[in-house]
Write a structure and sequence with these properties.
41% of the residues lie in helices and 15% in strands. It is of the alpha/beta class. The chain folds into three domains: 2-270, HUPs (Rossmann fold), CATH 3.40.50.620; 320-413, Up-down Bundle (Four Helix Bundle (Hemerythrin (Met), subunit A)), CATH 1.20.120; 422-468, no CATH class. A five-stranded parallel sheet has the order 5-4-3-10-11, with helices on both faces. Strands 6-7-8-9 form a four-stranded antiparallel sheet, covered by helices on one side. Helix 2 crosses helix 3 (98-115), helix 8 crosses helix 9 (320-342) and helix 13 runs antiparallel to helix 14 (440-452).
């Protein structure tokens, strides 16, 4: 298995630190708003990597953070140490507490996480649940001489870490180009480890520390939490390409300055998802969520398929027509599985030597495509080549369901579904619109109407998923830890 390592800028043979164990951390969302489909491309890449590692026999310990404090709005302008805390700003705008905002959007994130059939990590670790660990890491950095104090916080002194920014192009960034210069910073690239609470306002999220009341900087959480769950050195760190320039170099500096050890061996970054050829933006109204797609009648699996049509390190362009094509392709896969299953075991025949060799060749080629830096476009091409071949459908089905353990397209569920009346689907769609619009009382009324009709609606998988009331799976959204 080979993977591109952003740290060395080349595709490398994957060799774990302590095989067969693999420790993997992925940067998760800041839960101040709905997570959009660009973010979920990154999480889907991490998911496929976890699935592939498991398919190759590795024992994966997978952790993802949930940022619910310390991520400031200045990050959009090039300085993550300036601006307002995203959680507190969202809380003020919504007339709720920061804790309520974090809880609501975390649950929405987890719902979409399940809709996209992403494997749950061993830990979803919240920043606010790990304040002691973050303070302890800052104290280690302080003891090692890597910190200094300003009027607004405790900062990391990047000049004392010679390898700072080796994974990025930070040396090309000039402070003050888009944000006000912080005159107290010794170096433009220095970053906050702990921010002091303002003297003229009371924050909702703040804690006592050895340096004064305040809150952690955005970057410190990932170093502290990843090392808590995976050790001071681990195998893989995944995230979006936007984190490669600042957030991840800061994680490396913090961790290695504290431990004097290599922090992470392989860094895996996913490229941006464009929309109609441009960047996603709230101002343009094109930062689509998974629910936006579902409301238009698309399956979450169609989006997952769309992600696979492009290589994770290359930008892909989201368009509604492109999603429609992905939906058509996915529907064909589902229909093939249904038809192959409908034939039953009687359709199984002994393979000739020629066809056995051909089936084995497809299996090897699929594995080779995926093992060469997650080659999903090539893997999909092999899927379709297999389905068009002359090997028996039952053997095609075996191959397809085996491969789906890595692709995660829920194909094993095809053919085992239940026909839902159109009236019930319509009501479920109406309820979804009410719920997403914040009209929870009205949405609950529709839910009760569906129950009287003998149907249960669930908001965790397939969005929304309908089941007869007698088939209660007992699924509940778990807490983030």
């Amino acid at each position: 298995m080979r993977i591109y390592n952003s740290l060395t800028r080349q595709i490398e043979e994957f060799v774990p630190i302590k095989p067969p164990a693999v420790g993997m951390y992925a940067c998760g969302p800041t839960v101040y708003s709905y997570v959009h489909i660009g973010n979920f491309r990154t999480y889907t890449t991490a998911d496929v990597l976890v699935r592939l590692l498991k398919a190759n026999g590795y024992e994966v310990s997978y952790v993802m953070n949930i940022t619910d404090v310390g991520h400031l709005t200045g990050d959009n302008l090039g300085d993550a140490d300036t601006g307002e805390d995203r959680m507190e700003k969202a809380a003020s705008k919504a007339g709720k507490t920061a804790w309520e905002i974090a809880d609501f959007y975390t649950r929405q994130f987890l719902m979409d996480f399940d809709r996209l059939n992403l494997l749950r990590p061993r830990e979803f670790c919240r920043a606010t649940d790990h304040i002691p660990e973050q303070i302890a890491l800052i104290q280690r950095l302080e003891a090692n001489g890597f910190t200094y104090k300003t009027s607004d916080g405790i900062y990391f002194d990047t000049a004392k870490f010679p390898r700072y920014g080796e994974m990025s192009t930070l040396t090309q960034i000039q402070e003050g180009a888009r944000v006000e210069v912080n005159r107290e910073k010794r170096n433009p690239r220095d970053f906050a480890l702990w921010k002091f609470s303002p003297t003229d306002a009371k924050r909702q999220m703040e804690w006592d520390s050895p340096w004064g009341v305040g809150f952690p900087g955005w970057h410190i959480e990932c170093s502290a939490m990843s090392m808590k769950y995976l050790g001071e050195s681990f195998d893989i760190h995944a995230g979006g390409e936007d984190l490669r320039s600042t957030h991840h170099p800061n994680e490396i500096a913090q961790a290695e300055a504290a431990t004097r050890k290599q922090f992470v061996k392989y860094w895996v970054h996913s490229a941006f998802l464009l929309v109609d050829g441009g960047r996603m933006s709230k101002s343009l109204g094109n930062n689509y969520t998974l629910s936006d797609l579902v409301q238009k009648g698309f399956s979450p699996m169609a989006l997952r398929y769309l992600y696979f049509m492009g290589h994770y390190r290359g930008q892909i362009n989201f368009t509604w027509s492109g999603l429609a094509s992905a939906q058509t392709a996915y529907d064909k896969l589902v229909e093939f599985v249904r038809q192959a299953r409908s034939k039953g075991d009687s359709a199984r025949v002994a393979l000739s030597a020629e066809k056995m060799k051909k089936a084995d060749d497809y299996r090897k080629r699929f594995a080779a495509a995926m093992n060469e830096d997650l080659g999903t476009p090539q893997a999909l091409a092999i899927v379709w080549e297999t389905l068009k071949s002359n090997i028996p459908d039952y053997d095609k089905l075996d191959l397809l369901l085996d491969w789906d353990q890595i692709l995660g397209l829920r194909l094993s569920e095809a053919g085992a579904g239940i026909t839902v009346p159109e009236e019930v689907r319509s009501l479920a769609g109406e309820r979804e619109k009410l719920r997403l619009g914040g009209k929870f009382v009205e949405a609950d009324s529709v839910r009760m109407q569906l129950e009287k009709m003998g149907w249960e609606v669930r908001d965790t998988v397939g969005g929304p998923q309908l089941k007869p009331k007698i088939q209660d799976s007992g699924f509940k959204i778990q807490d983030s830890k």
